[in-house]
Amino acid sequence: ILQWNFMRNALLAIILMAPLFGLLSTMIVTGRMSFFSDALGHSAFTGIAIGAICGMAAPIWAAVIFSVLFALLFSFVRNRSNQAADTLIGVFSSAAVALGIFVATLGGGSFTKYNKYLIGDILSVSPGEIGMLALTLAAVLIFWLLYANRLTLTAVHPQLASSRGIPVKLSQTLFTVAIAVVVTLSISSIGLLILNSLLVLPAASARNVAKNLKQYHLLSVLFALGAG
Predict the structure, then answer these.
(1) Residues 6 or more apart from 182 whose CB is under 8 A from it?
(2) What CA–CA distance (Å, rounded) separates 71 from 73?
(3) Cα separations in angstroms, 171 against 25, 35, 141, 174, 177
(4) What is the residue-level pLDDT of the chain in tens, covering all 228 positions?
(5) Of 69, 100, 103, 147, whose CA is between 20 and 30 Å from 62?
(6) CA torsion 208→210→211→213, rounded to 10°?
């Protein structure tokens, strides 16, 4: 079946996306941010709708920008609010959905033309998107090598991490931006309805069998590959 270009592209995209989902999944589950990726998916959808209305040839770039701004705004509010993270995620998710529907149907427009972003089509991934995924994977791997331990401590006990001199706010902001970029680049091939599953289930499964942090990360990536 690999004699067709679209099948080779799809397989390569899965090989690149699975480590991204697996690694990010570990911190999403540990930090109890399981619904944040879903909220980012909604914000990416809103960004695509805005890009399409503005006449952009590739509205996915509008989605990347909007999702990053959405993640930065969430981090800003989270650091300055006494509300629990899940409450803020619920507020931001609802706002993103409402704004997305409003923009998509502005001027009597049809919502159905955005259905492909809800379901996704891995067989339609382009070489350009594969290149962006490869660059994103390289950036996330470097980020993980430098910040994995800090992110884990920040997710488990932010106060202890701060007392050890770890920049908690910066670490959380960089992590949320990484999720925003990965979600946005994957939405057209994976689909909004499945994205959150791939960002939660690999680590949720790995936690049941892993005996240490290294196994936790490795098994999460393997489970993501299997799902892909």
Answers:
(1) 17, 20, 21, 24, 136, 140
(2) 5
(3) 16, 19, 15, 5, 10
(4) 778 888 999 999 999 999 999 998 998 888 777 777 777 777 777 777 777 777 776 677 777 888 888 888 887 887 787 777 777 877 887 887 788 778 777 766 665 666 677 777 888 888 888 888 899 899 989 988 888 888 888 888 888 888 888 888 888 788 888 888 888 888 878 887 788 888 889 999 999 999 998 899 999 999 999 988
(5) 147
(6) -120
pTM of the model: 0.77
Alpha-carbon distance 39 to 43, whole Å?
A: 6
Any residues with CB less than 8 A from the CB of 185 and at least 6 apart, and which?
Answer: 60, 64, 129, 132, 133, 136
Neighbours of 200 (CB within 10 A): 19
| Residue in this structure with the two tokens 């932010």, named with its chain if needed | 158
